[in-house]
């Protein structure tokens, strides 16, 4: 007991230091977003912003179509998540509850799809987009990321933890397979669904590689791709504009996590990797 009391402050200190270390880059970005360019590039470090103002936010919104890029990111992320939840939920339910020939092979394919690096399939996927005429379109931005093997596997493992006796009881009462999914499985898998939404949103909203290949025009750029193009004459980077744009792009992820954090934490800690 005494040993545990001595270890408790050490654990708290380690958690606090790890949290500060993780938050430090964001805090620096937030501080710099209110500072003029000269203060940002200065070698003198200040904990609080110098000459703080909202001028950088006003300027970046006036000089660049931030609202358009924000809407592009929101449309891509929103539609991708909606399609992802429909396709991945049905796929996970099939793998978790329905027996059919070739089920083991299907499970193996889902596992193998998680192992293959995204960089390996980027070139053939881009060639497909070119042949189909989907370059610089919402279809090209959304559909290739509408299915996630990891989310399928994650949801399948979560569904498998729900007792089959609940399925059987519902079917005795007259529920179909679809009814069991919507009335039994999904209500008991809300934490896993919330975790899936947060993870998928983070991946799609912050993705740079695929949108940078598919979005050719300025109007079709997403926020990460657009921010990466910020550059002044002479090749210098306008950090006084990049920082507020980066802060604005972080707001939706922070808000979504705060809104779904209860389900996100529960989904990660309820033992979704068992099975």
* Rg result: 23 Å
In total, the number of domains comes to 1
Please give the CATH class. Mainly Alpha
CATH architecture: Orthogonal Bundle
**What fraction of residues sit in β-strands?**
under 5%
Structural class: mainly alpha
**Largest beta-sheet details:** none
Oligomer: single chain
Helix content: over 70%
As residue ranges, the low-confidence spans are 271-275
What is the overall number of helices?
Answer: 14
The averaged pLDDT comes out at 86
Q: How many beta-strand elements?
A: 0
CATH topology: MetI-like fold
* CATH homologous superfamily caption: MetI-like
Describe the protein.
The chain has 275 residues and is an all-alpha fold. It has a single domain (49-269), classed as MetI-like fold (Orthogonal Bundle), CATH 1.10.3720.10. Helix content is 72%, strand content 0%. The protein is built from 14 helices and no strands. Helix 9 (164-172) crosses helix 10 and helix 11 packs antiparallel against helix 14. The protein is globular, with a radius of gyration of 23 Å. The two termini are 34 Å apart. The relative contact order is 0.14. Mean pLDDT is 86; it is low at 271-275.
Offer a quick outline of the entry:
The protein is an all-alpha fold and 275 residues long. It has helices spanning 2-32, 37-41, 55-63, 66-97, 103-115, 118-132, 138-142, 149-160, 164-172, 177-185, 190-205, 209-214, 223-228, 239-269. Helix 4 (66-97) crosses helix 11 and helix 8 (149-160) packs antiparallel against helix 11.
């Amino acid at each position: 007991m005494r040993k545990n009391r001595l270890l408790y402050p050490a654990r708290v200190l380690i958690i606090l230091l790890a949290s500060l270390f993780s938050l430090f880059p964001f805090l620096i970005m937030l501080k710099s977003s209110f500072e003029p360019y000269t203060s940002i590039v200065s070698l003198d470090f200040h904990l609080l912003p110098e000459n703080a103002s909202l001028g950088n936010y006003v300027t970046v919104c006036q000089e660049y179509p931030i609202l358009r890029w924000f809407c592009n990111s929101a449309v891509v992320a929103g539609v991708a998540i909606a399609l992802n939840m429909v396709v991945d939920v049905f796929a996970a339910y099939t793998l978790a509850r329905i027996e059919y020939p070739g089920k083991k092979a299907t499970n193996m394919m889902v596992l193998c799809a998680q192992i293959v690096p995204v960089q390996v399939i980027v070139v053939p996927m881009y060639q497909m987009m070119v042949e189909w005429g989907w370059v610089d379109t919402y279809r090209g931005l959304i559909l290739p990321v509408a299915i996630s093997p990891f989310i399928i596997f994650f949801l399948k493992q979560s569904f498998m933890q729900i007792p089959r006796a609940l399925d059987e009881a519902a079917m005795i009462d007259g529920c179909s397979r679809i009814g069991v999914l919507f009335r039994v499985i999904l209500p008991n898998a809300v934490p896993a669904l919330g975790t899936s939404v947060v993870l998928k949103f983070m991946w799609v909203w912050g993705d740079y590689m695929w949108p940078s290949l598919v979005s050719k025009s300025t109007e079709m750029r997403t926020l990460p791709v657009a921010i990466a193009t910020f550059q002044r004459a002479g090749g210098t980077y306008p950090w006084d504009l990049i920082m507020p744009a980066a802060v604005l792009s972080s707001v939706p992820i922070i808000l979504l996590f705060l809104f779904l954090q209860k389900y996100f934490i529960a989904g990660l800690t309820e033992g979704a990797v068992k099975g």
